[in-house]
Every structure is written in C-alpha cells, then in structure tokens.
Amino acid sequence: MHPDHPHDQPTTPSAPILPTAPSALSGVVVADFSRVLAGPYMTMLLADLGADVVKIERPGSGDDTRSWGPPFADGQATYFLGVNRNKRSVALDLGTPEGLAAARGIVDRADVLVENFRPGTMERLGLGYEEVRGSNPGLVYCSVTGFGTDGGAALPGYDLLVQAMGGLMSVTGEPGGPGTKTGVALVDVVTGLHAGLGVLAALRHRERTGEGQRVEVSLLGSLLSALTNQAAAHLGAGVVPRALGNRHPSITPYEVFETGDRPMVLAVGTDRQFRALCERIGRPELASDERFATNTARVAHREELVEALAGPLAARTADAWCQELTAAGVPCGPINDLPGAFALADRLGLPVRVPAETAGPGQVAHPVRFGATPASYRSAPPRLGEHTAEIVAGKPPVDNSVGGL
C-alpha cells in the first residue's frame, strides 16, 4: 500500500458520458481517500451504481497504481484504469492547511468516506472518525486495513503478505510444493466486496435512523471469511488443509484431466453426475464399484479413480468431450486464457465489456444486472487532479440529476 510515488500524469480531460437512467446510488457522495486496489475497486462499484465518488489524491503523483505498468493504454497504467472509472479526481496536499481544509470541506458534504491509510494516519491529519462526525453525524466512515486497527496496525497491508500470513498460499499450488499466490490480488478484491457490503448496510441503517457509523474491514479478516470450507474443516474438524493442486479436498473427480489434445476440467459434484460420466466414457461399471459409488468413497480412493478415468478421457479431444459431457449434464470445460474467457462471455451474451468510448479502454462491466436501476458508465478514469477546481468550489458532477458535491 506504500510504494514509491508515481510519475506525474497528463491533464487531458476525460469525456463524461451521462447515464441513460438513474442508478441505485444516485445522489450519494463518496469522499475516497483510498489507493491501490481494495478501496478503489469498492468505490468504483459504488460509482457504477450512481454514487459521485470524489477521489482525493496527492499532487504530482496520485494513486500509486497510476505508475504500475506496463502495460499502459492511452499513456495510463491499465492497473489504474481497471478500478477508477466514473470518479472525479481532486489533487490535495493534506500536509498543508489549505489542502487539509479543502479535504475537510469535501468530507463534511459527503455521505461516505473511504480510506485505507495505515491505522492512525487519518487521526493524525485531523480526519479521523471522531474528528469529523461532529460536523457530519450521518457520515458512513469506512476504513480498510491490512490486519486491523489494534495488534496488526503496524503491519503493511500488501495482498501477497496477507495471502501468505492468512493461510491462502498454504492451500494453493501443487502438493508438497512451495506456497503459491493466486493469479490476481484476490484478497484485495474480496475485501473490496466486503467493504462495499458494509457501506451499503450502513447507508440503510442511516436511512432508518439518520445515524452514521464507522465500518471497518481488514484484508486478513476478509480472507479468513473467504476460506469458507477450508476454514470450516479446520475449525470444525481440526483439519489442517494442504495444497492439492487442482484437486478438491472433499469432492472427486473435481480436477484437471488430459484429453487427446489439451487439458480439460471435470467438476463432478453429485453421484448422478458421476454415473452419467461413467456411461459417456464407456465405463458404466465404475459407478457401481463400491470404491466409487459415493463421493465419500471416491475421495478415499481418489488415485484409483483418476487412473481409471485417465485412459478413456485421453482417447478424444477436449472439445468432443465437452460437447458430449455437457449434453449429459456433467460439468466440464477447457482451461481458457483471458481471450478465450472473454470470447465465451461474448458467445453467451453476457455484457462484460464496456465500450472504450463510454468509460475508457479495457473496462470490465459491473457484474450485477439490475432491472430498474442499471449500472452506468459516465466517464473514463480521471486524469490526476482533473476536477480539483470544480470539487473545491463545491460544484456537482456534469450530470446534475445524480446529485453530488
């Protein structure tokens, strides 16, 4: 969360795109002091739902991810672009009385504040919850930390560090191998989702009572919650889960198999699906074998089952198997790269791409589809300080119908 300062950014304005219908959070103002991923991802989701998110950044450098490249698109780091659309940027030096006063003015007019500084930083600036609630008692104040605000306050909240210390790496990777991180900063993303849920719940509470409150979420707590079945196995049965590669600790066959041309995933979760698999591969006797007749038995005899399935599956191509097994109700699929994954979504008619002219290059659509209050893509990720003058002056965003500062 605290890398070196990024380089200065150009100031070419981004073109605002107005929504076609009011979104669920239209009129909600978010003072966003967060940087990098967990906080910005969450505030982007709120912005997609109509909130006016005011991104408060350091002059000359801004959000750390502005310099996290390559790759770049239109001269900007794609990392930054991926989590900052629909926001307005104000560049303020919080180390000066003028910058701090401007920030305090934004906070006093906001419905939500989001920050992910190290614990104690906002208090030292005079922007802690107790300091600002007096002038804005309805404020929902969301703090995102790495390891909490008490014993873990001194630990830096890097996703990789939390994956390691929080146990995720111990159950990821090949058996007996070193711990492996996930291919994306999954802990940051999950934490952003939990933080967004907490903010929405707090806004609902405020709607009923008029009261704001502090909302806290940590990377470690979010990860432990996300470990779900692995955490339950440990807490409920004393199991210490270990890495199983692509296998599942409680279900089989639920892993990768080689076919005649490339790997394929089987995700057989029920006895009915297993019987259908055995029929389709020409080995119906496996379904009645006492070693494989139930999932519990299959897990106990995993190696024998994998060996029995390997030969038949290697006899045909992945596409042939996927077509036949899917028709039979057996969950399976190829291992796609990202072009393949997006092509699949396109074939299925899922609206996962945001046109570049709407919110800038490389934007993945908001994943929730609403019947009455759709997500909206109003503007590309802002240039650093692009909206400083209008925000400090208290002007609303271009689309006045959504409210705002």
TrEMBL record:
Coiled coil: none
Pfam annotation, one family: CoA_transf_3
Record's keyword annotation contains Transferase: yes
GO molecular function, one term: CoA-transferase activity
InterPro entries given in the database record: CoA-transferase_III_domain (IPR050483), CoA-Trfase_fam_III (IPR003673), CoA-Trfase_III_dom3_sf (IPR044855), CoA-Trfase_III_dom_1_sf (IPR023606)
Keyword Ligase: no
Keywords assigned by UniProt, alphabetized: Transferase
Superkingdom to which the source organism belongs: Bacteria
Entry-linked PANTHER family: SUCCINATE--HYDROXYMETHYLGLUTARATE COA-TRANSFERASE
Protein name in UniProt: CoA transferase
Lineage, top ranks: Bacteria, Bacillati, Actinomycetota, Actinomycetes, Kitasatosporales
